[in-house]
Design brief:
825 residues; nine-stranded mixed beta sheet; five-stranded parallel beta sheet; 45% helix; disordered N terminus
C-alpha cells in the first residue's frame, strides 16, 4: 500500500494475504487521525527509497525478458549463425595489429636493443651522407601569409627541400610579390584557388567545394596527383609549420637513410609553440623568437593520443607522403595508399587509414616508426605574438569558413575567401591585456571576440624550452634574411630590461632569496644531489643544536596549511622543491635558503638509474646505455614526452619546470630558475631562451645565502652550519674534526643501493654517451661552474686553508669536446 501511494503507479502490487490485511489496517489507522502525520511523512520517505529500488529492478527484469523472448523466437539455425559471427568478431578484434597504449609507460614496450655507439651517433646527429638523395617538396595553401613566406621557404631550403607547391587562396597582401623571385628560379609553383573546378581536367585545379571536409579532396590530393616537379616525397604542411629531422640537418638525408623504399608515408607529430610572452611582432625570425612549446600537442586533440606513448601517432600530426604511393589524404591522415606498405593500422570506420590508429605491431612497422617517422620534428608556430595571432585569426580557417559564416562570425571576402571581422577595440584590448582567460571552449562560442580568446588560450603554451631548430638553422637563417639575433625580450633576466607583468613576477623569485636574518633554514633538495645523506646529516646536526628538523612530504608541500604549519614549527625544513617556494613561505625574510649542486653529467646518470630502480617508469630490460641516450638527448627525448609520464611520478609538479625530459636535462638550472610556485606566464617568461633561463638561475645562485657542491660535501656543510648558527656542530666537525658526521653517506633508489656501485664507469667511458649527456645538460654545466666559483670564494673567507675548488667539471669538459667532434654542426 505504501508503494502504491508514493510511487503513483497504476500497476497492482500483490501482497500475501497476511501482509495485505495488516498493511491495509495500518494505512487506515494512519489516515484517521492528524496525530499520525509525522508517521505518514516518515513512511512516505522510506517508501520513496524502496520505490526507486523497485523501479530499477523492474526495468532490469523487463529488458532481460525482452532479450530472452527475442532469443527464444529465433530459429536454431539463426542462433548458430549468430554464435559463429560473435566468435569470429571476437577473434578478429583480438588479432587486430594495434599496439597497446596505456598513456604512460608503453613507450618502453618496444623490443629492447643492445647499445651500439655507431647507431647511437646516427640517431643523435645523423650518419654519413647518402649517395642518392630523394627530392622533397612542400605543399601548402596560403592566404595573406606574405610576412612569413620567405622565412618558411628559406628554412626548408636549408633542410634540403627543393620544391614548393603553393595555392594562393584570395590573398590581398604582398604574397605574390614575395613568391615571384622563387617562381622565376623554378623553386615555387603557384596556382590560385578557384570557386569550382571542371570535372574532367588535365591541369592542377583547387576549389573551395570541399573545404568543409577537413582537407579531403583538396589541394593535397592535387599535389600528389600531378606532382609537376616529380618530387619523391611531398610534405603537406602549412606556412606556420617547420619540418626538420632531429638527427642531422638534411631532410633528404634522413629520408634516404632511415625510410624503407616500400614505406608509403609517415605521420609527423606536432610541437605547438606559444607566444613566448610577445605582444607585438618581434623583429627576428619565428625560429629565433619562439623557443618554448607545450608538452602536449594541443589541448584540443584527443587525450588518449596526445598523452599516449611515442609509438602512438597523435591526431595532431601532418603527413609526409611518398608521392608514388599515396593517392588521397586529409589534413592529418591518409585516405588512400596503394602499392606500398603502411605502418599504421586501419581506423575501423573506413575514413582514413592513419587517422586515429596506432602503428602496426609488426617488426617492420616498429622499426620504421622508430627510425623514419618519430625522429622527424614539426615545429608548429600556431599563435606567434598576440598581434600576429589577431591577423591570423582574421584570415579565417579553411575548414570552418562556411560554419563560421552561419554563426555570424565570418563573412565572404571580395575574392571568395572567408574572413573574420575583429573590432579594433577588441583587438587592442586583447594585445594589451595582462591576463588572457583560459576557461572558454571554442566549440560553444558564437561571438568573434570570445572565439578569438578561446582559440588563442587553447594553443598559447610556453612551458618547455625547445631550441632544436634555432641551434641547427638559426644562424644561417638569420644570414639569409638579414634578421637580428635574440632580442632583449628573450634575455631580460641577464639585464632586467623587460618590464612586462610576467617577467616582473618571475624576477620576484631571486629578489626574495636574500634574507634579512637567518632565524630559520630551508634546504631546497634537488633530486640526486646526495639529498638522502644531507637530510640525515642535517637531522643529527639539528639534534645536537637542540633544534627541530622537518622533512616535508610532497603532500605537505602541496597543501598550503600543512606547509605553513611545518614551516612555523620547525627550525630547519627540507623540501624537494625549487627556489620559487620562498614566495609562499611564512616569514621568508628570516629564512636562509640553501641548496647543493652536483656534477651535471653524474646527476643525470644517477637520475636515470633512479627511475630504472623505481620500476614502472622505464623498462629495465635491454642495455641501460640505450635508455640513457634516449632520455638525456634533446633530439631523442621529445619523442617520448607526454603529459601522462609526469602523472606516474610521486610528485607530478616536478614536470612544471621542463616537462618529462626536464628531469634528465638541465634540471638544476630549471630548479634555480623557479617554476613550481609561479604562474604559467612567469614560467614561460623565464624560458624564452636557454640564455635567459641560465641567467635567471645564476641570479638565484647569487642571491642564496649558501650554495654547496656534492663533490665538496664536507666543506659545503661547514658553510651551511655557519649560516644557520649551528656553532657547536661547526666547531666540533669543521674546526676540531671531532665528529664523524661529515663522513656519513646514505643512498636510496640508486645504482649503488641495488649493488651496482660502479654503474657510472660504463657511461663515462664512451664518447657518444658523454657527448649526449653534455648536449642535454650544457646549461647545468655552466651553472655548476658558477657555483664552483661561488663556493671557492665563500670557503676562502670562512676557511682559508681549504683546498681550492676546481673551476669547471672535468666530465663536462670531456663531454663538450666530444660533442664538438661528433655532432658536425
Amino acid at each position: 500500500a505504501y508503494l502504491v501511494l508514493s510511487c503513483g503507479r497504476s500497476r497492482q502490487i500483490e501482497l500475501p494475504p497476511s501482509k495485505r490485511k495488516r498493511a491495509l489496517g495500518n494505512l487506515q489507522g494512519l489516515l484517521r487521525g492528524t496525530h499520525h502525520r509525522l508517521r505518514i511523512a516518515s513512511a512516505a520517505s522510506r517508501a520513496q527509497q524502496r520505490c526507486s529500488r523497485t523501479r530499477a529492478a523492474m526495468m532490469a527484469r523487463e529488458h532481460g525478458s525482452r532479450i530472452l523472448n527475442w532469443w527464444r523466437r529465433l530459429r536454431t539455425c539463426d542462433r548458430l549463425a549468430l554464435c559463429v559471427a560473435f566468435i569470429l568478431a571476437a577473434a578478429l578484434v583480438r588479432e587486430m595489429p594495434v599496439s597497446s597504449d596505456d598513456g604512460g609507460t608503453a613507450a618502453w614496450d618496444a623490443p629492447p636493443q643492445p647499445y651500439d655507439a655507431a647507431r647511437a651517433k646516427k640517431q643523435l646527429w645523423g650518419g654519413s651522407n647518402a649517395t642518392r638523395l630523394p627530392t622533397v617538396a612542400a605543399c601548402a595553401r596560403v592566404r595573406n601569409e606574405g610576412p612569413y613566406l620567405k622565412e618558411w621557404i628559406e628554412f626548408h631550403l636549408l633542410t634540403g627541400m627543393s620544391h614548393f607547391y603553393i595555392f594562393d587562396d584570395a590573398s590581398s597582401d604582398n604574397t605574390r610579390e614575395v613568391l615571384q623571385p622563387y617562381v622565376q628560379r623554378g623553386i615555387v609553383r603557384l596556382w590560385s584557388v578557384q570557386e569550382k573546378c571542371p570535372k574532367h581536367r588535365e591541369e592542377i585545379c583547387v576549389s573551395r567545394e570541399h573545404d568543409a571536409e577537413h582537407g579531403e579532396r583538396g589541394f593535397r590530393d592535387e599535389c600528389l596527383r600531378f606532382n609537376p616537379d616529380g618530387a619523391a616525397w611531398v610534405a603537406a604542411i602549412d606556412v606556420d609549420e617547420f619540418l626538420y629531422p632531429s638527427a642531422g640537418t638534411s631532410l633528404p638525408q634522413h629520408l634516404a637513410q632511415n625510410c624503407a623504399p616500400s614505406l608509403a608515408y609517415a605521420l609527423v607529430r606536432w610541437k605547438v609553440f606559444g607566444s613566448g610572452g610577445y605582444r607585438r611582432k618581434p623583429a627576428g625570425t619565428s625560429v629565433d623568437a619562439y623557443r618554448a612549446r607545450s608538452v602536449s600537442d594541443d589541448t584540443g586533440c584527443y587525450p588518449r593520443l596526445t598523452c599516449g606513448d611515442e609509438y602512438a601517432p597523435p591526431v595532431c600530426a601532418k603527413v609526409i607522403a611518398r608521392a608514388k604511393c599515396v593517392q588521397k589524404q586529409g589534413t592529418h591522415y591518409v585516405v588512400q595508399a596503394d602499392g606500398c606498405e603502411s605502418i599504421y593500422a586501419p581506423e575501423g570506420s573506413g575514413r582514413g587509414i592513419g587517422k586515429l590508429a596506432a602503428p602496426l605491431s609488426t617488426d617492420f612497422a616498429r622499426s620504421q616508426h622508430a627510425t623514419c617517422s618519430a625522429p622527424l620534428r614539426l615545429n608548429h608556430y600556431a599563435v606567434r605574438s598576440r598581434e600576429e595571432y589577431v591577423q591570423k585569426f582574421s584570415r579565417g580557417r579553411i575548414s570552418s569558413g562556411a560554419r563560421d559564416t552561419k554563426k555570424g562570425i565570418a563573412t565572404r571576402g571580395p575574392n571568395g575567401g572567408y574572413l573574420r571581422e575583429v573590432d579594433e577595440r577588441d583587438r587592442e584590448d586583447f594585445i594589451d591585456a595582462e591576463v588572457i582567460p583560459k576557461e572558454t571552449r571554442a566549440s560553444k562560442l558564437t561571438s568573434t571576440k570570445d572565439l578569438m580568446l578561446a582559440e588563442f588560450a587553447r594553443r598559447d603554451f610556453s612551458t618547455v624550452l625547445d631550441e632544436g631548430a634555432a641551434v641547427k638553422y638559426g644562424a644561417r637563417l638569420r644570414d639569409k634574411l638579414g634578421a637580428p639575433s635574440l632580442s632583449d625580450h628573450q634575455t631580460w633576466a641577464c639585464s632586467d630590461t623587460s618590464r612586462d607583468s610576467a617577467s616582473l613576477e618571475a624576477a620576484r623569485v631571486w629578489h626574495h632569496l636574500t634574507p634579512i636574518t637567518h632565524e630559520k633554514g630551508l634546504f631546497i633538495h634537488i633530486p640526486k644531489t646526495a639529498g638522502t645523506s644531507l637530510n640525515s646529516i642535517l637531522r643529527e646536526a639539528s639534534v645536537r643544536e637542540k633544534k627541530t628538523f622537518c622533512e616535508l612530504s610532497f603532500k605537505e608541500l602541496d597543501d598550503r596549511s600543512s606547509r605553513f604549519r611545518r614551516a612555523r614549527s620547525c627550525h630547519l625544513v627540507s623540501a624537494e622543491t625549487d627556489v620559487s617556494a620562498l614566495l609562499q613561505w611564512p616569514s621568508r625574510k628570516t629564512v636562509a635558503a640553501f641548496t647543493f649542486l652536483r656534477d651535471p653529467l653524474s646527476r643525470a646518470v644517477s637520475q636515470v638509474e633512479h627511475h630504472r630502480s623505481v620500476g614502472g617508469r622505464i623498462n629495465e630490460q635491454g642495455d641501460p646505455r640505450t635508455t640513457l641516450v634516449r632520455l638525456v638527448s634533446p633530439n631523442l627525448c621529445p619523442q617520448l614526452e607526454r603529459d601522462a609520464r609526469c602523472r606516474f611520478l610521486r610528485h607530478p609538479a616536478k614536470c612544471l619546470a621542463g616537462g618529462w625530459c626536464g628531469l634528465f636535462q638541465n634540471h638544476q638550472t630549471q630548479i634555480l630558475a623557479g617554476a613550481l610556485h609561479v604562474s604559467e606566464e612567469a614560467r614561460g617568461a623565464v624560458r624564452r631562451s636557454g640564455e635567459n633561463l641560465l641567467c635567471a638561475a645564476k641570479r638565484s645562485l647569487a642571491a642564496l645565502p649558501v650554495v654547496g657542491l656534492t663533490e665538496r660535501l664536507a666543506d659545503s656543510l661547514c658553510l651551511v652550519f655557519d649560516a644557520l648558527g649551528y656553532h657547536k656542530t661547526y666547531k666540533d666537525c669543521c674546526v676540531h674534526k671531532k665528529c664523524s658526521l661529515l663522513d656519513r653517506r646514505e643512498t636510496r633508489h640508486s645504482g649503488a643501493a641495488r649493488g651496482n656501485a660502479s654503474y657510472s664507469a660504463s657511461y663515462f667511458s664512451d664518447d657518444v654517451l658523454l657527448a649526449a649527456l653534455y648536449e642535454g645538460n650544457a646549461l647545468d654545466c655552466a651553472l655548476y661552474a658558477a657555483a664552483a666559483e661561488r663556493l671557492g670564494s665563500d670557503l676562502a673567507k670562512l676557511r682559508p686553508r681549504a683546498a681550492p675548488v676546481p673551476a669547471y667539471s672535468a666530465r663536462c669538459r670531456r663531454g663538450e669536446l666530444a660533442l664538438r667532434r661528433l655532432r658536425g654542426y
